[in-house]
Amino acid sequence: MLLAAHEIATALDGSSPSSFSDRICFDADLLDHHGHSDWSTSNTSNRAVAIVYPHTTEDVSLIARICYAHAVPMVPYGAGSSVEGNFSQPHSGICIDFSRMDRVLALHADDMDVVVQPGVNWMDLNREISTTHGLFFPMDPSPTATFGGMVSTNCSGTNAMRYGTMKDWVLNLTVVLPDGQIIKTRRGRPRKSSAGYNLTSLFVGSEGTLGIVTEITLKLAPVPADTSVAVVSFPSIAAAARTASALMRCGMQGLAALEIMDEVQMGMLNRYGSEAVRKRVWDEKPTLFLKFSGTTEGIRQDIAHVEKVIDQSGEEAAVKFHFAATKQEENDLWAARKEALFTMVSTRPAGTVLWSTDVAVPLSRLAEIINISKKECSALGIFATVIGHVGDGNFHVAMMYDPNDAKMKAEVGKVVHNMMHRALEMEGTVSGEHAIGTGKKECLVDELGLETIGLMQTFKRAVDPKWIMNPGKVFDMPEDIQRQG
Ligand SMILES: Cc1cc2nc3c(=O)[nH]c(=O)nc-3n(C[C@H](O)[C@H](O)[C@H](O)COP(=O)(O)OP(=O)(O)OC[C@H]3O[C@@H](n4cnc5c(N)ncnc54)[C@H](O)[C@@H]3O)c2cc1C
């Protein structure tokens, strides 16, 4: 692996290893940072031997050719915000950091699409194009996330209810295959095509296990004419989920996001929220966060409609509404939702770690699975909160526990395991948006079955016969490849 790293350094820089600090790094702290995440429970102890920093697709191809020749694992790295050990390096290898491939290559405003390098951050792109061109990219995972990682995890976020997930926004990809070949999944930028296999979708969500994404053509959406936010608190999760389901079914065009936070998470806002979030005292009850977008008049009608749906739902006696009166208040209310995870992680007791789950179920089963999961967490006496993209039936339980307490760790693991199996029993999925990484490989088998996993492995073997692309993710390395070392 070190030999490959030195060959890469020399090839990229054309210089001796002592002077290549700009394109390759062996620093132990940086390697640790690139191989571990506080957000993730699925960390491994192995680290890559080096981090390389490509600037172009050709650099990536060169890196891949050298790694392929030496059968050395390659692990792409975006911003490191994924939470299932997706960028960890259980088989060591070379970490490919895309922070220097962070250019917007072409913006076609009239066609509403953009070509970006994988290291572009989605918030930077939106800042750049929203005011100048009235366009934006709607997926909103971690504020730090970059497009290479977002494509590879098929991410989504609060806007998925209205805009779908990452797979719906990718028009084509440039991909470097494990042996260094450069391919495009589609050469043009048509907004639809039924020409041939849909290779773009094969790479979206493949977690860097099939190839390395070096250019991405994305669709863009028009910035809505107006937006607004409302929060509605309920006496119980069941009442909140019932109302969410009623709101979804009434087909309101302007309802763009529908999020839920439980009473524990609402209490965190009052105690540890940012200054903007603590401008108001939050009702410490299960709360729906509603985002509206459209015309001002349309939003006004939608808000009236929401009130009517709640009036007719029978929950109205115990419900408290709050609609943003100003743009500032709208931002402050939504900040409470967007900052929730950060608030929780930054205030977790010393010595504890976070285990965040990510299951999705059909809407009608959401209240039931959240309630059972909350009961199981309470029985353990651990601190646990619920945040959910309720409009998609997707929720996260974040549990904090002492990792040195082996019994507790096993019990938390059992709660997580139960949650995933319950989701499957309810015809849901073990991963709504965080992908599989190293953390959910066994559950993926339970979800898809051996035959389907077998077909995925056949694709992987065809594209990556030496099994060097982000090995150990999604599924285990087959024994015959392991035996070859
Ligand atoms: C506070 C917080 C909030 C979050 N909220 C959400 C949310 O609402 N919705 C959601 O979906 N996710 C969310 N996430 C998870 C995370 O932001 C997403 O998984 C995101 O897509 C990861 O992007 P990244 O750039 O950090 O990728 P990384 O974590 O660096 O990498 C993710 C995966 O992509 C692979 N990869 C990276 N670059 C490439 C490339 N160029 N080619 C091929 N493979 C590549 C990596 O090997 C790895 O397998 C959240 C995370 C945090 C910490």
UniProtKB/TrEMBL annotation:
BP-aspect Gene Ontology terms: lactate catabolic process
EC number: 1.1.2.4
SUPFAM superfamilies: FAD-binding/transporter-associated domain-like, FAD-linked oxidases, C-terminal domain
Record keyword Metal-binding present: no
Segment forming the signal sequence: none
Pfam family, one: FAD_binding_4
Catalytic activity: (R)-lactate + 2 Fe(III)-[cytochrome c] = 2 Fe(II)-[cytochrome c] + pyruvate + 2 H(+)
Co-factor requirement: FAD
Annotated FAD-binding PCMH-type domain residues: 44-223
Example of a GO cellular component annotation carried by this entry: mitochondrion
PANTHER family the record matches: D-LACTATE DEHYDROGENASE (PTHR11748), DEHYDROGENASE (CYTOCHROME), PUTATIVE (AFU_ORTHOLOGUE AFUA_1G17520)-RELATED (PTHR11748:SF83)
Name by which UniProt lists this protein: D-lactate dehydrogenase (cytochrome)
